[in-house]
Amino acid sequence: MTSPSNDSAISIARTLAGTNPGKQPSRPTSTINDPQRSKSNSPRTPVHISQHHELSVAEQAALDLENSAAVEQAQNEIDIDSGADARSMSSLGSESGYGSDTQGSSSTSLSSSVRDYAFEHGHRYHKFREGTYNFPNEESEQEREDMKHAMMVNLCQKLHFAPLGDNPQHILDMGTGTGIWAIEMGDLYPGANVLGVDLSPIQPEWVPPNVRFMVDDVESPWLRPRNHFDYIHGRHTVMAIRDWPKLMRRVLDHLKPGGWFELQEIHHYPQCHDGSMPPDHPVTQYWAYIIEGLAQLGVNFNATLLLADMMREAGFVNVTTRIFHVPIGVWPRNKVLKMVGLYWRTILIDGLDPIATGPMTRGLKWKKEEVDVWLAHVRKAYMDSWVHAHMPLHVICAQKPEAGVDYSAESYAPEGMADS
Fold first, then answer.
1. CA distance 141 to 136
2. For the chain, how many helices (H) and strands (E)?
3. What CATH number should be reported for the domain whose range is 53-419?
4. How far is residue 337's CA from residue 21's CA, in Å, rounded to a whole number?
5. Percentage of residues in the chain with pLDDT exceeding 70?
6. Domains of the chain: which residue ranges?
7. In this structure, what DSSP letter does residue 136 have?
8. How far is CA 377 from CA 282, 286, 374, 390, 396, in A?
9. Would you place residue 290 in the very low, low, confident or very high pLDDT band (cuts 50, 70, 90)?
10. Nearest-angstrom CA–CA distance, 62 and 69
Protein backbone atom coordinates (compact mmCIF):
# COMPACT_ATOMS: atom_id res chain seq x y z
CA MET A 1 0.00 0.00 0.00
CA THR A 2 1.11 3.54 -0.59
CA SER A 3 0.24 6.74 1.12
CA PRO A 4 -0.65 9.95 -0.66
CA SER A 5 2.40 11.47 -2.33
CA ASN A 6 3.35 14.89 -3.66
CA ASP A 7 3.54 13.96 -7.35
CA SER A 8 0.09 15.17 -8.38
CA ALA A 9 -1.50 11.82 -7.62
CA ILE A 10 -4.28 10.87 -5.24
CA SER A 11 -4.01 7.46 -3.60
CA ILE A 12 -7.15 5.50 -2.82
CA ALA A 13 -9.21 2.53 -1.67
CA ARG A 14 -12.91 2.03 -1.24
CA THR A 15 -14.71 -0.49 0.92
CA LEU A 16 -18.04 -1.46 -0.51
CA ALA A 17 -20.82 -3.71 0.70
CA GLY A 18 -21.74 -6.82 -1.24
CA THR A 19 -24.87 -7.38 -3.24
CA ASN A 20 -27.92 -9.05 -1.76
CA PRO A 21 -30.41 -10.06 -4.46
CA GLY A 22 -33.20 -9.96 -1.89
CA LYS A 23 -32.80 -6.26 -1.23
CA GLN A 24 -32.89 -3.04 -3.16
CA PRO A 25 -29.28 -2.68 -4.40
CA SER A 26 -27.09 -0.39 -2.32
CA ARG A 27 -23.52 0.31 -3.40
CA PRO A 28 -22.96 -3.14 -4.90
CA THR A 29 -19.63 -4.20 -6.32
CA SER A 30 -18.51 -7.09 -8.45
CA THR A 31 -14.99 -7.95 -9.48
CA ILE A 32 -13.73 -10.36 -12.06
CA ASN A 33 -10.25 -10.79 -10.68
CA ASP A 34 -8.72 -14.21 -11.04
CA PRO A 35 -8.76 -15.58 -7.45
CA GLN A 36 -5.10 -16.58 -7.87
CA ARG A 37 -4.12 -13.04 -8.87
CA SER A 38 -6.23 -10.97 -6.48
CA LYS A 39 -3.66 -10.51 -3.74
CA SER A 40 -3.68 -6.77 -3.25
CA ASN A 41 -3.46 -5.46 0.30
CA SER A 42 -6.20 -2.99 -0.48
CA PRO A 43 -8.78 -2.84 2.35
CA ARG A 44 -11.53 -3.18 -0.22
CA THR A 45 -13.59 -6.34 0.09
CA PRO A 46 -14.18 -7.47 -3.50
CA VAL A 47 -17.34 -9.36 -4.32
CA HIS A 48 -16.74 -11.81 -7.14
CA ILE A 49 -19.34 -12.45 -9.80
CA SER A 50 -18.99 -16.16 -9.20
CA GLN A 51 -18.13 -17.06 -5.63
CA HIS A 52 -16.72 -20.51 -6.38
CA HIS A 53 -15.84 -21.31 -2.77
CA GLU A 54 -19.50 -21.12 -1.69
CA LEU A 55 -21.08 -23.20 -4.47
CA SER A 56 -21.33 -26.89 -5.18
CA VAL A 57 -20.22 -28.19 -8.56
CA ALA A 58 -23.83 -28.36 -9.76
CA GLU A 59 -24.61 -24.87 -8.46
CA GLN A 60 -21.50 -23.42 -10.08
CA ALA A 61 -22.35 -25.10 -13.38
CA ALA A 62 -25.86 -23.62 -13.22
CA LEU A 63 -24.45 -20.17 -12.45
CA ASP A 64 -21.95 -20.39 -15.28
CA LEU A 65 -24.75 -21.35 -17.64
CA GLU A 66 -26.87 -18.41 -16.45
CA ASN A 67 -23.93 -16.02 -16.90
CA SER A 68 -23.20 -17.32 -20.40
CA ALA A 69 -26.86 -17.06 -21.36
CA ALA A 70 -26.96 -13.48 -20.04
CA VAL A 71 -24.00 -12.43 -22.20
CA GLU A 72 -25.50 -14.15 -25.25
CA GLN A 73 -29.00 -12.72 -24.81
CA ALA A 74 -27.71 -9.22 -24.04
CA GLN A 75 -26.08 -9.17 -27.47
CA ASN A 76 -29.08 -10.58 -29.30
CA GLU A 77 -32.63 -10.64 -27.94
CA ILE A 78 -33.52 -10.83 -24.25
CA ASP A 79 -36.19 -13.34 -23.23
CA ILE A 80 -39.10 -11.73 -21.39
CA ASP A 81 -40.24 -13.05 -18.01
CA SER A 82 -43.97 -12.54 -17.68
CA GLY A 83 -44.34 -14.67 -14.56
CA ALA A 84 -44.22 -14.27 -10.82
CA ASP A 85 -40.46 -13.67 -10.66
CA ALA A 86 -40.77 -10.41 -12.55
CA ARG A 87 -43.59 -9.22 -10.33
CA SER A 88 -41.83 -10.14 -7.12
CA MET A 89 -38.56 -8.49 -8.12
CA SER A 90 -40.44 -5.45 -9.38
CA SER A 91 -41.61 -4.85 -5.84
CA LEU A 92 -37.99 -4.77 -4.70
CA GLY A 93 -37.23 -1.96 -7.06
CA SER A 94 -40.18 0.25 -6.36
CA GLU A 95 -39.07 2.17 -3.94
CA SER A 96 -4.84 12.01 -16.91
CA GLY A 97 3.11 11.25 -18.36
CA TYR A 98 -0.17 12.50 -18.19
CA GLY A 99 -0.97 16.04 -17.29
CA SER A 100 -1.27 19.56 -18.66
CA ASP A 101 1.43 21.84 -19.99
CA THR A 102 0.14 25.21 -18.84
CA GLN A 103 2.38 27.14 -16.51
CA GLY A 104 -0.29 27.24 -13.83
CA SER A 105 -0.46 23.43 -13.86
CA SER A 106 -4.03 22.43 -14.49
CA SER A 107 -2.95 18.98 -13.34
CA THR A 108 -2.90 19.08 -9.58
CA SER A 109 -2.88 17.11 -6.38
CA LEU A 110 -5.41 17.73 -3.64
CA SER A 111 -4.81 21.42 -3.21
CA SER A 112 -7.43 23.42 -1.35
CA SER A 113 -8.72 24.95 -4.58
CA VAL A 114 -9.39 21.52 -6.07
CA ARG A 115 -11.21 20.42 -2.93
CA ASP A 116 -13.59 23.37 -3.32
CA TYR A 117 -16.97 22.61 -4.84
CA ALA A 118 -19.65 24.61 -6.63
CA PHE A 119 -23.29 24.31 -5.57
CA GLU A 120 -26.36 24.84 -7.74
CA HIS A 121 -30.02 23.85 -7.24
CA GLY A 122 -29.10 21.73 -4.23
CA HIS A 123 -26.40 19.73 -6.04
CA ARG A 124 -22.62 19.75 -5.65
CA TYR A 125 -20.45 20.13 -8.76
CA HIS A 126 -16.70 20.09 -9.39
CA LYS A 127 -14.94 23.42 -8.87
CA PHE A 128 -11.84 22.61 -10.95
CA ARG A 129 -12.64 23.75 -14.50
CA GLU A 130 -16.11 24.63 -13.23
CA GLY A 131 -18.93 23.98 -15.71
CA THR A 132 -16.96 21.59 -17.90
CA TYR A 133 -19.00 18.62 -16.65
CA ASN A 134 -22.72 19.21 -16.28
CA PHE A 135 -23.48 16.57 -13.66
CA PRO A 136 -22.92 16.61 -9.86
CA ASN A 137 -20.34 14.68 -7.82
CA GLU A 138 -21.98 14.38 -4.38
CA GLU A 139 -22.02 11.15 -2.34
CA SER A 140 -25.26 9.84 -3.86
CA GLU A 141 -23.77 10.25 -7.34
CA GLN A 142 -20.65 8.36 -6.28
CA GLU A 143 -22.85 5.51 -5.08
CA ARG A 144 -24.61 5.53 -8.43
CA GLU A 145 -21.26 5.31 -10.21
CA ASP A 146 -20.24 2.29 -8.16
CA MET A 147 -23.57 0.64 -8.89
CA LYS A 148 -22.93 1.25 -12.60
CA HIS A 149 -19.66 -0.59 -12.23
CA ALA A 150 -21.37 -3.60 -10.64
CA MET A 151 -23.98 -3.60 -13.39
CA MET A 152 -21.37 -3.40 -16.15
CA VAL A 153 -19.18 -6.17 -14.81
CA ASN A 154 -22.12 -8.49 -14.20
CA LEU A 155 -23.40 -7.80 -17.71
CA CYS A 156 -20.06 -8.10 -19.53
CA GLN A 157 -18.39 -10.61 -17.18
CA LYS A 158 -15.05 -8.81 -17.60
CA LEU A 159 -13.39 -5.45 -17.01
CA HIS A 160 -12.11 -5.00 -20.57
CA PHE A 161 -12.29 -6.55 -24.03
CA ALA A 162 -9.09 -5.23 -25.61
CA PRO A 163 -6.39 -7.95 -25.76
CA LEU A 164 -3.79 -6.61 -23.32
CA GLY A 165 -1.72 -9.74 -22.80
CA ASP A 166 -0.50 -10.80 -19.37
CA ASN A 167 1.71 -7.83 -18.52
CA PRO A 168 0.60 -4.37 -19.70
CA GLN A 169 2.87 -1.67 -18.26
CA HIS A 170 0.96 1.63 -18.39
CA ILE A 171 -2.85 1.96 -18.25
CA LEU A 172 -4.84 5.21 -18.30
CA ASP A 173 -8.48 5.47 -17.17
CA MET A 174 -10.07 8.66 -18.50
CA GLY A 175 -12.92 10.01 -16.36
CA THR A 176 -12.19 7.54 -13.58
CA GLY A 177 -14.97 8.78 -11.27
CA THR A 178 -14.78 6.93 -7.95
CA GLY A 179 -11.81 4.95 -9.28
CA ILE A 180 -13.35 1.53 -8.79
CA TRP A 181 -12.49 0.28 -12.31
CA ALA A 182 -8.89 1.47 -11.96
CA ILE A 183 -8.53 -0.25 -8.58
CA GLU A 184 -9.78 -3.56 -9.93
CA MET A 185 -7.50 -3.27 -12.96
CA GLY A 186 -4.61 -2.67 -10.57
CA ASP A 187 -5.54 -5.87 -8.75
CA LEU A 188 -5.93 -7.77 -12.00
CA TYR A 189 -2.60 -6.55 -13.42
CA PRO A 190 -0.28 -6.05 -10.42
CA GLY A 191 2.67 -5.33 -12.71
CA ALA A 192 0.95 -2.41 -14.44
CA ASN A 193 0.97 1.26 -13.46
CA VAL A 194 -2.68 2.35 -13.52
CA LEU A 195 -3.48 6.08 -13.66
CA GLY A 196 -7.03 7.37 -13.22
CA VAL A 197 -7.90 10.95 -14.19
CA ASP A 198 -11.02 12.92 -13.33
CA LEU A 199 -12.20 16.48 -12.79
CA SER A 200 -13.49 15.61 -9.31
CA PRO A 201 -11.30 14.54 -6.35
CA ILE A 202 -13.78 11.92 -5.16
CA GLN A 203 -11.53 8.86 -5.06
CA PRO A 204 -10.61 7.03 -1.82
CA GLU A 205 -7.38 7.90 -0.05
CA TRP A 206 -5.58 4.56 -0.19
CA VAL A 207 -4.82 2.41 -3.20
CA PRO A 208 -3.01 -0.69 -4.31
CA PRO A 209 0.63 0.39 -4.78
CA ASN A 210 0.32 0.39 -8.58
CA VAL A 211 -2.75 2.69 -8.78
CA ARG A 212 -2.72 6.48 -8.76
CA PHE A 213 -5.27 9.21 -9.34
CA MET A 214 -4.94 12.71 -10.70
CA VAL A 215 -7.31 15.67 -10.85
CA ASP A 216 -7.20 16.95 -14.41
CA ASP A 217 -9.16 17.57 -17.59
CA VAL A 218 -8.47 14.99 -20.31
CA GLU A 219 -9.34 17.61 -22.93
CA SER A 220 -6.34 19.68 -21.83
CA PRO A 221 -2.84 18.94 -23.21
CA TRP A 222 -1.11 15.89 -21.74
CA LEU A 223 2.44 15.94 -20.42
CA ARG A 224 3.21 12.23 -20.52
CA PRO A 225 5.42 11.53 -23.54
CA ARG A 226 4.02 10.20 -26.76
CA ASN A 227 3.97 6.44 -27.23
CA HIS A 228 3.65 5.97 -23.46
CA PHE A 229 0.49 3.99 -22.65
CA ASP A 230 -0.23 0.36 -23.49
CA TYR A 231 -3.97 0.80 -22.94
CA ILE A 232 -6.30 3.79 -22.59
CA HIS A 233 -9.82 3.22 -21.30
CA GLY A 234 -12.92 5.37 -20.99
CA ARG A 235 -16.37 4.48 -19.68
CA HIS A 236 -19.52 6.61 -19.31
CA THR A 237 -17.66 9.63 -20.71
CA VAL A 238 -19.87 10.54 -23.65
CA MET A 239 -21.78 13.09 -21.59
CA ALA A 240 -18.59 14.98 -20.77
CA ILE A 241 -16.40 15.23 -23.88
CA ARG A 242 -16.90 18.22 -26.17
CA ASP A 243 -14.29 17.57 -28.88
CA TRP A 244 -14.09 13.84 -29.55
CA PRO A 245 -11.93 14.03 -32.73
CA LYS A 246 -9.29 16.05 -30.89
CA LEU A 247 -9.31 13.64 -27.95
CA MET A 248 -9.04 10.67 -30.32
CA ARG A 249 -5.92 12.15 -31.90
CA ARG A 250 -4.41 12.79 -28.48
CA VAL A 251 -5.11 9.21 -27.39
CA LEU A 252 -3.50 7.92 -30.59
CA ASP A 253 -0.39 10.04 -30.00
CA HIS A 254 0.07 8.81 -26.43
CA LEU A 255 -0.48 5.10 -27.05
CA LYS A 256 2.48 2.89 -27.83
CA PRO A 257 2.45 1.42 -31.35
CA GLY A 258 0.21 -1.65 -31.10
CA GLY A 259 -1.48 -0.27 -27.96
CA TRP A 260 -5.24 -0.39 -27.46
CA PHE A 261 -7.98 2.18 -26.89
CA GLU A 262 -11.33 1.02 -25.49
CA LEU A 263 -14.55 2.92 -24.85
CA GLN A 264 -17.56 1.45 -23.06
CA GLU A 265 -20.46 3.83 -23.62
CA ILE A 266 -24.22 3.46 -23.18
CA HIS A 267 -26.40 5.26 -25.71
CA HIS A 268 -28.86 6.85 -23.30
CA TYR A 269 -32.00 6.55 -25.33
CA PRO A 270 -34.51 3.75 -24.64
CA GLN A 271 -35.17 1.08 -27.24
CA CYS A 272 -37.82 -1.62 -27.31
CA HIS A 273 -37.77 -4.80 -29.38
CA ASP A 274 -41.43 -5.79 -28.90
CA GLY A 275 -43.29 -2.48 -29.37
CA SER A 276 -44.29 -2.23 -25.70
CA MET A 277 -42.92 1.32 -25.28
CA PRO A 278 -44.99 3.98 -27.10
CA PRO A 279 -43.09 6.88 -28.74
CA ASP A 280 -44.62 9.40 -26.33
CA HIS A 281 -43.71 7.44 -23.19
CA PRO A 282 -42.40 9.84 -20.49
CA VAL A 283 -39.05 8.02 -20.26
CA THR A 284 -38.51 8.50 -24.00
CA GLN A 285 -39.45 12.17 -23.73
CA TYR A 286 -37.14 12.61 -20.73
CA TRP A 287 -34.08 11.45 -22.66
CA ALA A 288 -35.04 13.55 -25.66
CA TYR A 289 -34.97 16.60 -23.37
CA ILE A 290 -31.59 15.59 -21.92
CA ILE A 291 -30.10 15.18 -25.40
CA GLU A 292 -31.49 18.57 -26.47
CA GLY A 293 -30.29 20.31 -23.31
CA LEU A 294 -26.78 18.91 -23.57
CA ALA A 295 -26.64 19.92 -27.24
CA GLN A 296 -27.28 23.50 -26.13
CA LEU A 297 -24.29 23.12 -23.81
CA GLY A 298 -22.00 21.84 -26.55
CA VAL A 299 -22.18 18.11 -25.75
CA ASN A 300 -23.35 15.57 -28.32
CA PHE A 301 -25.08 12.88 -26.23
CA ASN A 302 -25.54 10.79 -29.38
CA ALA A 303 -21.78 10.65 -29.95
CA THR A 304 -21.77 7.00 -28.83
CA LEU A 305 -23.11 6.09 -32.27
CA LEU A 306 -20.23 7.92 -33.99
CA LEU A 307 -17.24 6.81 -31.91
CA ALA A 308 -16.14 3.87 -34.09
CA ASP A 309 -16.01 6.02 -37.22
CA MET A 310 -14.18 8.76 -35.31
CA MET A 311 -11.54 6.22 -34.27
CA ARG A 312 -10.95 5.21 -37.89
CA GLU A 313 -10.75 8.84 -38.99
CA ALA A 314 -8.17 9.52 -36.26
CA GLY A 315 -5.95 6.74 -37.64
CA PHE A 316 -6.80 3.71 -35.49
CA VAL A 317 -6.94 0.23 -37.03
CA ASN A 318 -8.74 -2.98 -36.05
CA VAL A 319 -11.77 -0.99 -34.87
CA THR A 320 -14.39 -3.35 -33.49
CA THR A 321 -17.74 -2.90 -31.76
CA ARG A 322 -19.68 -5.17 -29.48
CA ILE A 323 -23.20 -4.16 -28.39
CA PHE A 324 -24.94 -5.29 -25.21
CA HIS A 325 -28.58 -4.44 -24.54
CA VAL A 326 -28.97 -3.21 -20.96
CA PRO A 327 -32.50 -3.93 -19.73
CA ILE A 328 -34.43 -1.27 -17.79
CA GLY A 329 -36.30 -3.10 -15.06
CA VAL A 330 -36.78 -6.74 -14.07
CA TRP A 331 -38.60 -7.97 -17.17
CA PRO A 332 -35.84 -10.35 -18.43
CA ARG A 333 -36.27 -14.06 -17.70
CA ASN A 334 -32.53 -14.63 -17.19
CA LYS A 335 -31.62 -14.07 -13.53
CA VAL A 336 -28.39 -12.21 -14.27
CA LEU A 337 -30.12 -9.86 -16.69
CA LYS A 338 -32.98 -9.43 -14.25
CA MET A 339 -30.53 -8.20 -11.61
CA VAL A 340 -28.71 -6.04 -14.18
CA GLY A 341 -32.06 -4.51 -15.12
CA LEU A 342 -32.87 -3.84 -11.47
CA TYR A 343 -29.51 -2.11 -11.02
CA TRP A 344 -29.93 -0.05 -14.19
CA ARG A 345 -33.46 1.07 -13.39
CA THR A 346 -32.36 2.01 -9.87
CA ILE A 347 -29.42 3.95 -11.30
CA LEU A 348 -31.68 5.81 -13.74
CA ILE A 349 -34.38 6.60 -11.18
CA ASP A 350 -31.88 7.74 -8.55
CA GLY A 351 -30.22 9.83 -11.23
CA LEU A 352 -33.34 11.53 -12.54
CA ASP A 353 -32.76 14.84 -10.81
CA PRO A 354 -28.93 14.91 -10.98
CA ILE A 355 -29.00 14.03 -14.69
CA ALA A 356 -31.77 16.45 -15.62
CA THR A 357 -30.99 19.54 -13.55
CA GLY A 358 -27.92 20.77 -15.46
CA PRO A 359 -29.10 20.14 -19.04
CA MET A 360 -32.67 21.32 -18.42
CA THR A 361 -31.94 24.44 -16.34
CA ARG A 362 -28.66 25.48 -17.98
CA GLY A 363 -29.37 24.22 -21.49
CA LEU A 364 -33.16 24.42 -21.92
CA LYS A 365 -33.66 27.26 -19.41
CA TRP A 366 -36.40 25.47 -17.50
CA LYS A 367 -37.12 26.63 -13.97
CA LYS A 368 -36.09 24.11 -11.33
CA GLU A 369 -39.70 23.85 -10.16
CA GLU A 370 -40.80 22.90 -13.68
CA VAL A 371 -38.12 20.21 -13.81
CA ASP A 372 -39.28 18.76 -10.49
CA VAL A 373 -42.90 18.49 -11.63
CA TRP A 374 -41.90 16.78 -14.88
CA LEU A 375 -39.61 14.32 -13.11
CA ALA A 376 -42.45 13.09 -10.92
CA HIS A 377 -44.16 11.74 -14.06
CA VAL A 378 -40.94 10.19 -15.35
CA ARG A 379 -40.20 8.47 -12.03
CA LYS A 380 -43.61 6.81 -12.09
CA ALA A 381 -43.21 5.82 -15.75
CA TYR A 382 -39.96 3.95 -15.07
CA MET A 383 -42.01 1.49 -13.03
CA ASP A 384 -44.31 0.51 -15.92
CA SER A 385 -43.90 -3.27 -15.81
CA TRP A 386 -45.48 -3.72 -19.24
CA VAL A 387 -42.67 -1.79 -20.94
CA HIS A 388 -39.71 -3.95 -22.01
CA ALA A 389 -37.16 -1.24 -22.69
CA HIS A 390 -33.39 -1.39 -22.86
CA MET A 391 -30.42 0.81 -23.78
CA PRO A 392 -27.49 -0.27 -26.00
CA LEU A 393 -24.02 -0.46 -24.49
CA HIS A 394 -21.32 -0.01 -27.14
CA VAL A 395 -17.93 -1.58 -26.36
CA ILE A 396 -15.52 -0.20 -28.97
CA CYS A 397 -11.88 -1.30 -29.23
CA ALA A 398 -9.24 0.14 -31.55
CA GLN A 399 -5.51 -0.33 -32.00
CA LYS A 400 -2.70 2.11 -32.76
CA PRO A 401 -0.95 0.84 -35.90
CA GLU A 402 2.58 -0.48 -35.73
CA ALA A 403 5.16 0.45 -38.36
CA GLY A 404 5.72 -2.21 -40.97
CA VAL A 405 2.45 -4.08 -40.34
CA ASP A 406 0.06 -4.51 -43.28
CA TYR A 407 -3.40 -4.05 -41.74
CA SER A 408 -5.17 -4.30 -45.09
CA ALA A 409 -4.42 -8.01 -45.40
CA GLU A 410 -5.90 -9.17 -42.11
CA SER A 411 -7.55 -7.48 -39.18
CA TYR A 412 -7.52 -8.63 -35.58
CA ALA A 413 -10.69 -8.50 -33.53
CA PRO A 414 -10.76 -9.07 -29.76
CA GLU A 415 -12.44 -12.31 -28.78
CA GLY A 416 -16.17 -12.25 -29.43
CA MET A 417 -16.09 -8.92 -31.27
CA ALA A 418 -16.67 -8.13 -34.91
CA ASP A 419 -15.49 -5.37 -37.19
CA SER A 420 -17.86 -2.45 -36.86
1. 7
2. 11, 11
3. 3.40.50.150
4. 12
5. 70
6. 53-419
7. -
8. 7, 10, 6, 19, 34
9. very high
10. 11
